[in-house]
């Protein structure tokens, strides 16, 4: 293993085609020959028109979507694991310890309060209960979620508030790899700035980030590199 | 990268035939501590048969199940003596039925129901038994003042939570659930599932849950098995199977689910 | 009664007796275990002691002395009928004195006078299965006995304490035999349970309608079920027997007039009689015992 290798994610020759059996087996090729690397401390931005497959790439790295060809190697310490070939158990562990994912939508679990949603994520990553709550409270504070909402389940929150819970949940644990799918979409200027600060902080901490951003301003502030996903269009 | 942790339960080639009729065919799976495995499918898919086989309520036509006992020794479940099997069912395992009347003694008070397993394994102090029952009733959010009430006076959701308390009192490592949310109001379902999630997280429980409701699977399970006509159609992490279904039947199932 | 009809000794044919004796032997070999037996038609309806009668008929010999009691008394209708039945069909000597009997058939009580080696007591049993009211399936209860799976019995006792503050079972109080089988002692009051423990006599139990026989050979350990913090307690009566002054017997309440007058007397009529005959005026002495 090359000691100078700082890559944490290595995507090689990945392809994805959807087969829609409900439409008489119509195939929808989305991506082919996707290859790129992400190094510790950098933020790689995925660019391209809507529908080209940006979210798809993030989901494949997270193991949410399965791939038809190639490999997605993710590093933990000195070990590389191919997400595409990992056992379900290993993938779950990878998600717990290595890969964090902030999706576009917050899937809410009924009855769990906002603070607990975020603290839970920290505990899953290994933090003990008290520290988890403290970090969760800190992040919610920075994202301007008022304390009176902390015990309420986010299902009743506005879109912007839900997005901020989602962000807090993604950032509370220190995953070495962080995937962000339009994290600032429903946020106002102040909260966008907070997210930018979070991203910068994580870059300094050596996290490898891969993100999709619609806001040009935010993109400019955080991106180290840009990848135009249209080159991988199938 | 795998920690080399041993599976709690491993089923290989499970097949149940009723003459020419198929219950299930060639099902293999393994289950680890702290994970929830959902078995989904429509009526007649074989999911309930599979659950019954795993819980040793039925004997398979072919196939084997190995289980890691509390002492660490891995045993073939169908080679266990009847006394051993019953002991396992009563202490190390739980079974939550869809119809609470199958899992509870309706003529016995809530406290008696929860205390039964303890008495079955030799607890002989009334005060301790009652104390333990009160503790568990509180944990499943049943008002402790109802400890002496009969389950016939409980709502559907309360009966299910009582079933859970009844099973949990001996700290089982594996719980089987057969459509536990069937027939319950949505908010009641949510409460029940929330309770299960908490128990799985706090106690490192392994759960096999049979359900036809994908929302329940998504909420509770880490892994998913889709069954149809007695066979496993697709398997993987829950989010994988539900977000990126590959098999035609799975795609049909997912698209048909109203709540997504 | 006009005659001409002659019965086999003790009414039952020898083959039936043999079958029943085999069941009895098996029961003695497995104390507390319910042995199925083919119950015969007896000249009395089910529920009137046919099980006990079949057991007695099978073990009775011409030199036996038979005592029959019902709720402790020799002179109630049932006791008299059964005693006369055997007097007629077996010609054996009958008695009301416990110490003189070699076989005692009883319904719902154990005599106060301790039994001796060589005596046999035959109990009439309605429902032999102690778990029946908790678990109606015979297939299940058989498994429970086979696997010593008795948690359910404690559930019943738990329910009693939860509902009444104490174990409310007053009769047919369940016992463990030789720490292996759970047994129903028949509807004798729990007061009598300790008498079954390590008794020098042979105890046989017959249930005619349910077709079961079980047994306690002499000197068998019989322990009443309880909880550590709610131990088994014998019934205590507040007053002595109004007739003989005994303080340690099971008392019956007898209504004496129409205005609520009542008195408590020994249920075991023979024992009470014996005390009065042995020491007239005993009452007065016993007040201070």
Q: Please compute the radius of gyration of chain C using only Cα atoms.
A: 20 Å
CATH topology of chain A: Rossmann fold
Strand order, main sheet of chain A: write it out.
6-7-8-3-9
H/E element order of chain C: HEHEHEEEHHEEHEEEEEHH
- Specify the structural class of chain A: alpha/beta
Description:
The complex is a heterotrimer of chains A (234), B (260) and C (289). Chain A has 234 residues and is of the alpha/beta class. Chain A contains 7 helices and 9 strands, in the order βββαββαβαααβαβαβ. In chain A, strands 6-7-8-3-9 form a 5-stranded parallel β-sheet, sandwiched between helices. In chain A, a hairpin with a 2-residue loop joins β4 and β5. Chain B is α/β, with parallel strands linked by helices. Chain B is built from 10 helices and 10 strands. Chain B has helices at 47-54, 82-91, 100-103, 110-120, 126-139, 156-168, 186-203, 214-220, 238-243, 248-256, and strands at residues 9-18, 21-31, 36-40, 62-68, 74-76, 93-96, 174-178, 206-211, 223-228, 231-237. In chain B, strands 6-7-8-3-9-10 form a 6-stranded mixed β-sheet, with helices on both faces. In chain B, α4 crosses α5 and α4 runs parallel beside α6 (156-168). The longest helix of chain B has 18 residues, at 186-203. Chain B is globular, with a radius of gyration of 18 Å. The relative contact order of chain B is 0.17. Chain C is 28% helix and 17% strand. A 7-stranded mixed β-sheet of chain C has the order 1-9-8-5-4-2-3. The longest helix of chain C is centred in the N-terminal third of the chain and has 16 residues, at 14-29. The relative contact order of chain C is 0.15. Chain A binds chain B through residues 19-22, 59, 63-66, 76, 79, 81, 86-94, 107, 109-112, and chain B through 1-3, 32, 35, 187, 190-191, 193-194, 197, 218-219, 222-223, 236-237, 239-240, 243-244, 246-248, 251-252, 255.
């Amino acid at each position: 293993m090359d000691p100078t290798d700082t890559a944490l994610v290595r995507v090689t020759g990945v392809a994805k085609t959807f087969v829609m059996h409900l439409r008489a087996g119509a195939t929808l090729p989305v991506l082919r020959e996707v290859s790129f690397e992400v190094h510790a401390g950098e933020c790689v931005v995925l660019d391209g028109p809507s529908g080209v497959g940006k979210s798809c790439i993030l989901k494949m790295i997270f193991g949410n979507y399965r791939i038809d060809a190639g490999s997605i190697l993710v590093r933990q310490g000195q070990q590389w694991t191919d997400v595409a070939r990992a056992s379900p158990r290993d993938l779950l562990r990878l998600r717990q310890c290595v890969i964090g994912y902030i999706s576009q939508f917050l899937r809410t679990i009924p009855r769990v309060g906002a603070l607990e949603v975020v603290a839970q994520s920290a505990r899953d990553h290994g933090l003990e209960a008290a520290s988890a709550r403290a970090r969760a409270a800190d992040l919610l504070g920075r994202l301007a979620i008022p304390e009176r909402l902390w015990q309420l389940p986010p299902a009743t929150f506005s879109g912007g508030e839900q997005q901020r819970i989602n962000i807090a949940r993604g950032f509370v644990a220190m995953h070495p790899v962080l995937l962000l799918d339009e994290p600032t979409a429903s946020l106002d200027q102040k909260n966008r700035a907070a997210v930018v600060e979070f991203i910068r902080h994580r870059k300094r901490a050596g996290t490898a980030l891969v993100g999709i951003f619609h806001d040009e301003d935010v993109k400019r502030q955080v991106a180290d590199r840009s990848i135009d996903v249209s080159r991988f269009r199938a | 990268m795998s920690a080399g942790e041993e599976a709690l339960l491993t089923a290989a080639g499970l097949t149940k035939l009723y003459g020419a009729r198929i219950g299930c065919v060639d099902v293999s799976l393994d289950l680890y501590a702290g994970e929830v495995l959902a078995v989904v499918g429509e009526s007649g898919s074989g999911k309930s048969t599979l659950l019954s086989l795993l819980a040793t309520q039925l004997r398979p036509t072919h196939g084997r199940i190995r289980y890691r006992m509390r002492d660490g020794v891995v045993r073939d479940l169908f080679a266990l003596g009847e006394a051993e099997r019953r002991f396992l069912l009563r202490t190390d395992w739980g079974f939550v039925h869809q119809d609470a009347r199958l899992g509870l003694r309706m003529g016995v008070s809530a406290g008696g129901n929860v205390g039964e397993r303890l008495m079955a394994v030799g607890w002989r102090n009334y005060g301790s038994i009652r104390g333990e029952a009160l503790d568990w009733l509180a944990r499943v959010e049943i008002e402790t003042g109802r400890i002496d009430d009969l389950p016939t006076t409980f709502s559907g959701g309360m009966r299910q939570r009582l079933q859970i308390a009844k099973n949990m009192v001996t700290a089982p490592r594996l719980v089987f659930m057969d459509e536990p949310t069937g027939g319950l109001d949505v908010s009641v379902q949510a409460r029940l599932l929330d309770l299960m999630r908490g128990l799985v997280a706090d106690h490192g429980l392994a759960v096999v849950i049979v359900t036809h409701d994908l929302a329940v699977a998504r909420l509770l399970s880490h892994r998913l098995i889709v069954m149809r006509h007695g066979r496993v159609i697709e398997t993987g992490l829950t989010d994988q199977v539900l977000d990126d279904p590959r098999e035609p039947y799975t795609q049909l199932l997912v698209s048909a689910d109203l709540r997504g | 009664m006009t005659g001409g009809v002659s019965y086999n000794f003790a009414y039952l044919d020898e083959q039936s007796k043999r079958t029943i004796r085999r069941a009895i032997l098996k029961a003695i070999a497995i104390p507390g275990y319910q042995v199925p037996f083919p119950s015969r038609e007896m000249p009395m309806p089910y529920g009137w002691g046919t099980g006990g009668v079949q057991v007695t008929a099978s073990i009775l010999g011409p030199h036996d002395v038979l005592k029959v009691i019902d709720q402790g008394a020799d002179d109630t209708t049932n006791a008299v009928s059964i005693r006369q039945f055997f007097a007629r069909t077996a010609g054996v000597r009958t008695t009301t004195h416990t110490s003189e009997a070699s076989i005692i058939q009883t319904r719902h009580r154990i005599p106060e006078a301790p039994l001796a080696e060589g005596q046999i007591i035959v109990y009439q049993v309605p429902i032999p299965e102690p778990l029946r009211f908790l678990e109606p399936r015979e297939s299940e209860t058989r498994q429970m006995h086979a696997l010593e799976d008795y948690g359910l019995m404690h559930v019943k006792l738990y329910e009693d304490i939860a509902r009444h503050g104490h174990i409310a079972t007053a009769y047919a109080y369940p016992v463990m035999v030789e720490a292996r089988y759970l047994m129903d002692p028949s509807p004798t009051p729990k007061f009598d349970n300790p008498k079954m423990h390590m008794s020098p006599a042979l105890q046989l139990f017959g249930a005619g309608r349910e077709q079961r026989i079980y047994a306690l050979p002499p000197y068998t350990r019989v322990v009443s079920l309880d909880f550590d913090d709610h131990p088994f307690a014998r019934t205590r009566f507040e007053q002595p027997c109004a007739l003989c002054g005994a303080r340690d017997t099971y008392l019956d309440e007898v209504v004496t007039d129409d205005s609520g007058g009542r008195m408590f007397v020994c249920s075991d009529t023979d024992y009470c009689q014996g005390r009065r005959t042995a020491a007239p005026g005993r009452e007065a002495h016993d007040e201070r015992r």
